[in-house]
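Is this the right way to post structure tokens for a design question? Let me know if I should format differently. Anyway, here goes:
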């Protein structure tokens, strides 16, 4: 099972940008869909964005559409989440995860089928 590690989180002012990275080790996720989820204090883990297996198309949740963009560099086994125009409501721990159950460009927006998770990276947006 591939291991994932998120990085790039930190403290940023509202309106700023961060670029999160999800790196694979102990295997590759080039043939797996990779999703980004976030969990704010006291809230359920929610879907943010995902990208299909291989060179699949990206998909973002309505809450971040137009601000967040997910991409992947398969030569490096890295998936990115570019976060622009950050708002205080984006404050959360961000996780990446792999989903081995998808096919084609299908993306799952619930966490149940994602089987390998990183430990998360904290994103804090100040007003």
């Amino acid at each position: 099972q591939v291991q994932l590690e998120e990085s790039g989180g930190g403290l940023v002012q509202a309106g700023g940008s961060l670029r999160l990275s999800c790196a694979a080790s102990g295997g590759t996720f080039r043939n797996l869909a990779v999703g980004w989820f976030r969990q704010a204090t006291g809230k359920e883990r929610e879907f943010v964005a995902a990208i299909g297996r291989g060179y699949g198309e990206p998909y973002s949740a309505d809450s971040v559409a137009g601000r967040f963009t997910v991409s992947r560099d398969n030569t490096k086994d890295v998936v990115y989440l570019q976060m622009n125009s950050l708002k205080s409501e984006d404050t959360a721990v961000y996780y990446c995860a792999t989903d081995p159950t998808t096919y084609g460009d299908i993306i799952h927006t619930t966490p149940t089928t994602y089987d390998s998770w990183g430990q998360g990276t904290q994103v804090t947006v100040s007003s």
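Format looks fine. Someone answered above. Worth noting: The CA atoms of residues 99 and 114 lie 4 Å apart. The chain is about 0% helix and 50% strand.
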